[in-house]
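Section: Multi-chain targets

For targets with more than one molecule, the full set of components is provided together so that the structure can be written out for the assembly as a whole rather than chain by chain. Components appear in the order listed by the source. The example entry contains two components.
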Amino acid sequence: MLKYTLKRLSYMVVTLWIIATVTFFLMHLLPGTPLKNEEKLPEHIKEQIMEKYGLNDPLPVQYLNFMGGLVQGDLGASYTQDGREVSGMIAEGFPVSAFIGGQAVVFGSIVGLLLGLIAALKRGTWMDNLSTMIAVFGISIPNFVLGALLAYFVGVKWGILPVALWESYASSIMPSFALALVVVAIISRYIRTEMVEVLDAEYMKTAKAKGLPRRTVVFRHALRNALIPAITILGPLTVNIITGSLVIEQIFALPGIGEYFVKSIVNNDYTMITGITIFYSILIVSVIFIVDILYGIIDPRIRLSGAKE
Amino acid sequence: MRNWRKLTSTFAILLVASLVLSACSFGGGDSGDAKGNVINLIETAEPPNLDSARSTDSASFTILNNVNEGLYRLDQDSKPTLGMAAEEPTKSDDNKTYTFKLRDANWSDGKPVTAKDFEYAWKRAMNPDTASEYAFIMNAIDKAEEYNAGKAKAKEVGVNAIDDKTLEIRLKQDVPYLKDLLTFGTFLPQRQDIVEKHGEKYALDPDKMVFNGPFVLSEWKHESSFTYKKNDQYWEKDVVKLDTVNVTISKDATTSMNLYNTGKVDYTGVGSEFIDSNKDKPEYFLQPESTVFYTEMNQIKEDSIFKNAKIRKAVMIGIDRQTEMDKILKNGVPAAGFVSPAIRGNDDKKFRELAKVNIEYNPQEAKKLFDEGLKELGLDKAPTVEIVGDDTSGAKDDLTFVKEQLKQNLGLEVKITSVPFKERLERGKKGNFDLLLGGWAADYNDAMSYLEIFTTGYSYNRGKWSNKQYDELVKKAQANENFDERLEQLLEAEKIMIEDAGIAPGYFRSSPSLINQKIKDMHWHAIGPDYSLKWTYVEEGK
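Its structure, encoded as tokens over all components, is:
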């Protein structure tokens, strides 16, 4: 198991290195410079400032400097927010995005799981149809439409929850809900499909024939098997959601990091582009790693084959 | 069952943990519980930098204008009024050296504001190591440009603290807009000890800077909100009536409207989709701007039809800007010329009031000119041209309108390419366009801020329009210390630019906004900071 873990960890480092390198060279293909007053700045002063920031150096030299900083854990200072460290900006905004997103994932998974279960167990009834309908809505209504509608009706018209801003727990409910719907949809569909398949399996008949109570059959034998695909998708989905959404954070005026993914590219904020990409990649590869381990807990056969490797 | 329970409890623990963890991180502004005269405003962007020597954007300049004060500040009519300067300066015989006496005033930490603070701040901005992107605004000062380009020493620059209360400014030559220029953010004073103490972190948080303006920045939650409190050390603190100003950062126009409609804030910008439903309300007003939007016509390419002045003129007068403003964009007026109506002419009148040109829409004349132009070029039919502009929704509406008008009125086929801002700049620089949609806002309150950019060889003149007479007039005006004559030359230059249709001005933009009627004397500015809160108060009983 230890050897397996170490091997996986070294793969993670290589993956991160490749991502950082590709991002670095790709972003330097973007037109323009990271300067803020580029439009008005006299040409010779612009050159002078580029020189000062080392942006006129040959790309391989810039790459080595960048990698050097990265190895020491230094992501550099943002170009658009002078002086503020990229790592500090991410550290300030991430808790907000993570809270909103985490809440959405937890809520979405629980509701999705229940809906999926009910739909599978009551196949063909109105409950199944209702669950399908919720899933279709969840997939097809973009979260910003839902967010805007919620803000207008719940916030402005009925005044139940704050329309926007990050002030109290109540501020997090609408954005989390807007993000959760897609989780509900995806999880419920996965669970339903898998459950339907598993419930028809031979060993379910065996379990029932043994005289096991229905609850044990459903939860212990069926659900456990049906969870594998849902968990696989839940990992990357969670990373996507906890790293924030530009539109949801703008609609609810939240100080999260969702915006950095888009704005950094628009502004050619090189340090932020690499910083946020690496941050996201670390989360993704870690989550994939965690999901692998979770498989083992849910299905011991996976752990066994992993240990043999 | 055991596993199911385990799963549920894991979720529950996660939920509780995240709640506890985040409980401390909620923003929870001051809004509502603060005592006294309080107003709540909106800013649409996180201020990137409050280091006045390096700031470039309106969010930062607006904050700096309310928490700091230069020799002059803008008054209710956006005219310069005495700030840290105790009186009008004395001028040397050659009109190039101005000597300012400073008033007795303190920084928020109780230390006196000295002439040294000005000399330090200005030279710091010009210092090439500071990499200020607005240092060129100081080029009117003797040797400033040279120092900024690394070709002169700091001590040669024409800014000198004679003693604690006397500041001497030596100009390259006298300019009529000096007082207006001195209200600009880059000219604010800075404290050497504070700047050096915090280094790269200077002005990144309220406790890493000091203030000499009507307010202090008491709180700054990055990406979320910031708060002004009245500055008890301010020299004219009796005039300042507001105790607290809470500013929420909201980047989305709809969200800002929602916050305004639920009473969370007293002011909001109005997005174009909300203009019709709000424009008749008493709270509705147009916030002034100095931005002019215009189309540049590429005259670099060998076979460009825009080398022909008649065709250029046809484009200029062949677009119905009044309809565009009334029905589509709704945030400005058709441009009568190139220089914004916000710009001063002389002490009494605005440049636009004195202007010698007025662009009028005339589709018949445009079509006639266009056909004549084509004939002169020996063409039967104009080739399809490409118009390049931003990818914002406003710019896209503008592009589409221009395309339709040119096709309908001139029979000119136009292909639209809308690109991100940086890409547009790059395309402009490389001349990779036929028509280029862009905007320009003044850096200082003078027509020169507009007219010099279209002289031959200027980097921002991307269509490469070139007119000898125009160049000469602008050059003469730049060196002219007789202000009446200078103005005359600038008026004449604008006339030539429009008659020769060097560019095609489109419209002067302003920002539709809503403001709570109980807020009085909040003064809006077209150039530099967005507003001044020094004189603002809340009317009781509303």
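The first strand of chain B starts at residue 38 and ends at 43.
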